């Protein structure tokens, strides 16, 4: 993308004009959440000004309008991730809830002797729900190991599949800490070869690259709106029809039923079986608008712009003496984790913040990675479409200044 | 030993000279480096206050004159510098004075964000613990 194109995109994010103290804001905490473009902010306002009413319930005009708007958003999500049918798209609160929905369903069908597989680089959201499912069902949890560079050991993965009764695999597409892009296509094929289902945590991939769930052939795919320019509190669970139909529902309530008597309830068809209660209507609509925003730029263009920035960031940060980079997989996206030898990551984060540079520090909700690396945490800069080379230059300058203050 | 309010006044005077965040943080980092190293025996689970990001170790003892002596440390240097400030204010004082100390100077010198519980660096919990020890000693008197 040209500088002019990026500038046009930045104009849609007024928050990027903010100053932190006397420094311009350099927002590099996009892995935590992205900023929102005006079109998304306007969509929420429009919804409440013009069509607010509950969905799927009323015969009145407003209810029809809000229902249409929400179902239209569902179609956009379906097209965006190349799902076959709209009823495979379930609106949730985010990745965490999407994973919990599947793990909770699985907790009822797993048994002793069954195995659940995750990887060594999972977010807590893709660890804890499975631990809970294993605890409830008596199944055991196995972890695919990774190398120090942050590359999963695919041979070890196949051994686990071969030697255990694996029912479900749940792995992240892109690591939120190390930036590793995992070979999920191959991992999906392997899971199926050994008769297991597989869920892909797409929280850190969906904002950064084209996604085709049909081509990938994953059984479930989870992601969050707020990491891809949509509001917080809205996310997606994609599932193959036969898989979602087979699993027991996650929550009970209104909207998800077909018939209720005190003796027995029959469930509504997909996707409503998984959408108990009044959904986040304006969130779903705004997610649809965020997808329009992304499609207009084009996921290929976003992917190559961010890759260029990642390469630039890596080469510039490497120039700093004492720089330690965590995650050096050949394929990386979004996240760049580092420390300065002799400095605590939170000290780096504090001094960067004083220079207007927003990054995240700590364990990034992935404590097992930190234990494996033997460090208390990292500093993490993470990218979005509106970032520029100037942002990277400011990160580098601020890091050098912080280093001088901390280490002399 | 000066009383708590005098020490705080001195700190506020020092901080009033800093126009730039750089000077302020350079000073705090310096304080962190100069905080006496604590004996390894205090750096165990019993003395640990686990923050989400940085960790703090704290011990409290009474000296022969009945003053409360705090020793503390952290793995992060800015946290350690702020610990040094708090120790300089509260250590060596009477337990009753520590329990009642007004620490709002932290706001006035512009470091309050470091003490917010959501910051998760262990500092707000450390202050709570310091006051808790002080109250416990005071109640024995
Ligand atoms: C890889 C990964 N999985 C899951 C999550 C959880 O997402 P959310 O908090 O939006 O549910 C995150 C968010 O940080 C993530 O990076």
Features:
heterodimer, A: 408 residues, alpha/beta, Aspartate Aminotransferase, domain 2, seven-stranded mixed beta sheet, four-stranded antiparallel beta sheet, 41% helix, B: 141 residues, alpha+beta, Sufe protein. Chain: A, three-stranded antiparallel beta sheet, 7 helices, globular, binds pyridoxal-5'-phosphate
Could you please describe the fold and organization of this structure?
The complex is a heterodimer of chains A (408) and B (141). The radius of gyration of chain A is 22 Å and the shape is globular. In chain A, the strands form five sheets. Chain A has a seven-stranded mixed sheet, sandwiched between helices. A four-stranded antiparallel sheet of chain A has the order 13-14-17-16, with helices on one face. Chain A folds into two domains: 3-29 and 298-407, Aspartate Aminotransferase, domain 1; 42-295, 3-Layer(aba) Sandwich (Aspartate Aminotransferase, domain 2), CATH 3.40.640. In chain A, helix 5 links the parallel strand 5 (114-119) and strand 6. Helices cover 41% and strands 17% of the residues of chain A. The model of chain A has no long low-confidence stretch (mean pLDDT 96). Chain A has helices at residues 3-10, 38-51, 61-80, 95-109, 128-137, 154-163, 184-193, 213-216, 241-246, 281-297, 299-318, 345-353, 367-373, 389-407, and strands spanning 19-20, 23-24, 26-27, 89-92, 114-119, 140-144, 165-172, 197-201, 220-224, 235-239, 257-260, 265-267, 323-326, 335-340, 357-358, 360-362, 378-382. With 408 residues, chain A is α/β, with parallel strands linked by helices. Chain B is an alpha+beta fold and 141 residues long. Chain B has a single domain (4-138), classed as Sufe protein. Chain: A (Alpha-Beta Complex), CATH 3.90.1010.10. Chain B is built from seven helices and three strands. Chain B has helices spanning 4-16, 21-34, 77-90, 95-100, 105-108, 112-115, 123-140, and strands at 48-50, 55-62, 68-74. Chain B has a three-stranded antiparallel sheet with strand order 1-2-3. In chain B, helix 1 (4-16) crosses helix 3. The longest helix of chain B is centred in the C-terminal third of the chain and has 18 residues, at 123-140. The radius of gyration of chain B is 14 Å and the shape is globular. The relative contact order of chain B is 0.18. The mean pLDDT of chain B is 89. The interface between A and B is medium-sized, with 17 and 17 residues. The complex binds pyridoxal-5'-phosphate.
């Amino acid at each position: 993308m040209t500088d002019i194109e990026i500038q046009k995109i930045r104009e849609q994010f007024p928050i990027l004009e903010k100053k932190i103290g006397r420094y311009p804001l350099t927002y590099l905490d996009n892995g935590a959440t992205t900023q929102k473009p005006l079109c998304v902010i306007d969509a929420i306002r429009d919804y409440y000004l013009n069509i607010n009413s509950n969905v799927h319930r009323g015969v009145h005009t407003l209810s029809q309008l809000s229902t249409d708007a929400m179902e239209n958003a569902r179609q956009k999500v379906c097209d965006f991730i190349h799902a076959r049918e709209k009823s495979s798209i379930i609106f949730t609160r985010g990745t965490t809830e999407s994973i919990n929905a599947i793990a909770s369903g699985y907790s009822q069908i797993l048994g002793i002797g069954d195995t659940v597989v995750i990887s060594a680089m999972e977010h807590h959201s893709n660890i804890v729900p499975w631990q809970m499912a294993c605890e409830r069902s008596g199944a055991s949890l196995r972890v695919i190991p990774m190398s120090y560079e942050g590359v999963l050991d695919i041979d070890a993965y196949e051994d686990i599949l071969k030697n255990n009764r694996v029912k479900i695999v749940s792995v992240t597409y892109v690591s939120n800490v190390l930036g590793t892009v995992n070979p999920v296509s191959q991992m999906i094929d392997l899971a199926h070869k050994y008769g297991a289902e597989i869920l892909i945590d797409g929280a850190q991939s969906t904002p950064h690259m084209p996604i085709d769930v049909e081509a990938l052939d994953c059984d479930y795919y989870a992601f969050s709106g707020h990491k891809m320019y949509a509001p917080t509190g809205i996310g997606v669970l994609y599932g193959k029809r036969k898989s979602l139909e087979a699993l027991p529902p996650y929550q009970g309530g209104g909207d998800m039923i077909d018939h209720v008597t005190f003796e027995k309830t029959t469930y509504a068809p997909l996707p409503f079986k998984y959408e108990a209660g009044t959904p986040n209507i304006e969130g779903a609509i705004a997610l649809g608008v965020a997808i329009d925003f992304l499609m207009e730029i084009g996921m290929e263009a976003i992917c190559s712009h961010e890759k260029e920035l990642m390469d630039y960031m890596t080469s510039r940060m490497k120039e700093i003496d004492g720089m330690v980079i965590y995650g050096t997989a050949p394929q990386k996206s979004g996240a760049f984790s580092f420390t300065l030898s002799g400095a605590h990551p939170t000290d780096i984060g504090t001094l960067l913040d004083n220079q207007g540079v927003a990054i995240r520090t700590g364990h990034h909700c992935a404590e097992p990675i930190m234990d494996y690396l033997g460090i208390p945490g990292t500093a993490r800069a993470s990218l979005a479409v509106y970032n520029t080379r100037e942002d990277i230059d400011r990160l580098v300058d601020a890091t050098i200044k912080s280093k001088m203050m901390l280490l002399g | 030993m000066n009383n708590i309010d005098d020490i705080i006044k001195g700190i506020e005077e020092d901080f009033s000279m800093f126009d730039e965040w750089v000077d302020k943080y350079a000073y705090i980092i310096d304080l962190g480096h100069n905080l006496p190293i604590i004996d390894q025996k205090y750096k165990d689970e019993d003395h640990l206050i686990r923050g989400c990001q940085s960790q703090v170790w704290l011990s409290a003892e009474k000296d022969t004159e009945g003053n409360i002596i705090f020793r503390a440390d952290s793995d992060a240097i800015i946290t350690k510098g702020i610990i040094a400030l708090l120790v300089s204010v509260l250590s060596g004082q009477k337990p009753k004075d520590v329990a009642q100390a007004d620490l709002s100077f932290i706001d006035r010198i512009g470091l309050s964000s470091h003490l917010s519980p959501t910051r998760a660096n262990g500092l707000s919990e450390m202050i709570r613990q310091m006051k808790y020890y002080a109250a416990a000693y005071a109640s024995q008197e």
